[in-house]
Design a protein that fits this description.
Helix content is about 40%, strand content about 15%. The chain has helices at about 5-20, 20-35, 60-70, 110-125, 140-145, 155-165, 170-180, 190, 225-235, 245-255, 285-295, 310-325, 355-375, 385-405, 430-440, 445-450, 455-460, and strands at about 50-55, 80-85, 95-100, 130-140, 195-205, 275-280, 300-305, 335-340, 410-415, 425-430, 465, 475-480.
């Protein structure tokens, strides 16, 4: 195989994202259940089909659902729906209203999203006994479905979420708090549904696909409690920083004055659960499709799985260290694929970027240090030749370090096309990125310390901007390796 290119990595990444597109996985799922004779998908049994939901994949899921229902012979006049989605994904549909709940790059609750959440709750509460509710849930749903508990304003809830983000709280910790400050999360939406059946169709953006965590589980039983939510704020020393209304609400919950989130699925008149959940797509499927693409391009494939988590910089540095070891043991070009979602703990005053851009920068920084160490093994007798010889040796080391990067390339990107509050999905770390950084005299250590990866990669032209993908199954990292030239088989 010729030299690795960013196009190789992008092709593999896009194949993974393509596999979890709603227009493919949702109609196939519904048709399979119809063919199996699943009575829950016999749409003639229901008076109306109500559709609600929220998430980054909401628009594509809604369009795919309308088409799937039409293919199943459902009269469109029986369908009514409202789904909160990012503004850039809005398009006209026949019966499902796509509500622009937030602009791109603003991954937090907005007044527009709160308005839409209220409308969704009204639709659910108005369901008749013979109505079917289809709830479309995908990553980003927590921010797109905000409806704070009584006595808490949207601005106050936003403040809590920002504080949790700043502290590096996990998605499970954040959702334990969000669910107990909401009128719809943590199963409360399903609790308000009195219709015949709710089918919740999910594109998962959480490791392990826990139903109660994805979009804060609006139709799933919630195993967390007010005590858990209080413990999260206590753990990160936020009790003194959150608004008084939030503390008061949680304390009322601890005293039993406010109902807990539901701990089991609501039952219908027949004693059967009124809600059924289905995972349509996940990070695992994206990794499998990416692996097939990589193999078709001639790469050996090593998949690290969909469970990668932890502090972004630490995980990236460990991968860089492993990459150096792998590169000297492989016999053929190899694609190392990994999924999951890492976490960035941000200081009060930080730069711009997202976890994938930070991952790429931390990887570039660490592997460059490894390459520099390799370069420093250049002729040592130059060390005794004075200042001029020392400068010559440093130039030689830089050149050797650049050469050491040949045959290694990383693309780290979010499958939703967004990475933090930016217009990029992630970034590339490769020999060209290092060369451009050195040419411009950019200090990777400084940018990394300030969490300003976006500015760094923007200056060197290494940002990855595929645009919104209208799906979201966490992150997909593509690490491409070639054996050093002298170690390649004849």
């Amino acid at each position: 195989m010729s030299a690795l290119t960013r196009a190789h990595a992008e092709t593999i990444w896009r194949a993974g994202v393509q596999a979890v597109q709603p227009q493919f996985c949702l109609p196939r799922f519904i048709s399979q259940h119809i063919e199996r004779g699943d009575p829950r998908f016999d749409f003639s049994r229901y008076a109306r089909i109500l559709v609600v939901g929220a998430g980054k994949a909401g628009a594509a899921m809604s369009a795919a659902l309308e088409q799937a229902l039409a293919d199943a012979g459902v009269d469109s006049s029986r369908i009514q729906g409202w789904v909160n989605v990012p503004s850039e994904t809005v398009r006209p549909l026949k019966r499902i209203h796509l509500h622009p709940a937030r602009p791109m790059g603003v991954n937090e609750p907005t007044p527009e999203a709160m308005f839409g959440a209220q409308r969704i709750l009204e639709i659910v509460q108005a369901a008749g006994p013979d109505d079917l509710l289809i709830c479309l849930i995908s990553g980003g749903g927590s921010a797109l479905l905000p409806l704070p508990a009584e006595g808490i304003s949207l601005a106050e809830k936003q403040q809590v979420v920002r504080l949790l983000h700043r502290c590096g709280a996990t998605i499970r910790e954040m959702n334990a708090v969000r669910k107990h400050l909401s009128r719809v999360k943590g199963g409360r939406l399903a609790e308000r549904f009195a219709g015949r059946l709710c089918l919740t169709l999910i594109i998962s953006d959480v490791i392990g696909d826990p139903l109660d965590v994805i979009a804060s589980g609006p139709t799933a039983p919630d195993p967390t409690t007010y005590a858990d939510a209080w413990a999260v704020l206590e753990k990160y020393h936020l009790l003194a920083e959150v608004p008084g209304s939030v503390r008061d609400h949680l304390q009322r919950g601890l005293r039993g004055e406010v109902p807990e989130t539901p701990k089991q699925l609501p039952l219908g008149p027949d004693g059967q659960p009124r809600v059924a959940h289905f995972i349509l797509a996940s990070n695992r499927q994206a990794l499998e499709a990416a692996a097939q693409s990589a193999a078709s391009l001639g790469f050996e494939v090593l998949s690290l799985g969909p469970y990668i988590e932890g502090e972004t910089r630490q995980v990236a540095e460990e991968l860089a260290q492993q990459a150096d070891c792998w590169r000297h043991t492989i016999a053929r070009p190899t694609a190392v694929l990994s999924g999951g979602e890492t976490t960035v703990t941000l200081p009060p005053n930080h730069g711009k970027g997202g976890r994938n851009q930070e991952f790429a920068l931390a990887f570039l920084h660490r592997f460059s240090a490894i390459a520099q160490e390799h370069g420093s093994s250049a002729p040592r007798d130059q060390q005794e030749r004075g200042a001029s010889a020392t400068r010559d040796r440093q130039k030689c080391e830089a050149a050797d370090a650049g050469d050491y990067w040949e045959g290694i390339l990383l693309l780290a990107a979010g499958t939703d096309g967004e990475d933090g509050p930016t217009d990029a999905a992630g970034a590339f770390a490769d020999a060209e990125a290092l060369k451009q950084a050195q040419t411009q005299g950019l200090d990777m250590t400084d940018f990394l310390a300030r969490h300003d990866a976006y500015t760094f990669f923007d200056r060197i032209g290494a940002l990855f901007r595929p645009g919104l993908t209208e799906t979201n199954v966490m992150d997909l990292r593509v690490l491409l390796l070639q054996p050093p030239v002298q170690e390649q088989p004849a």
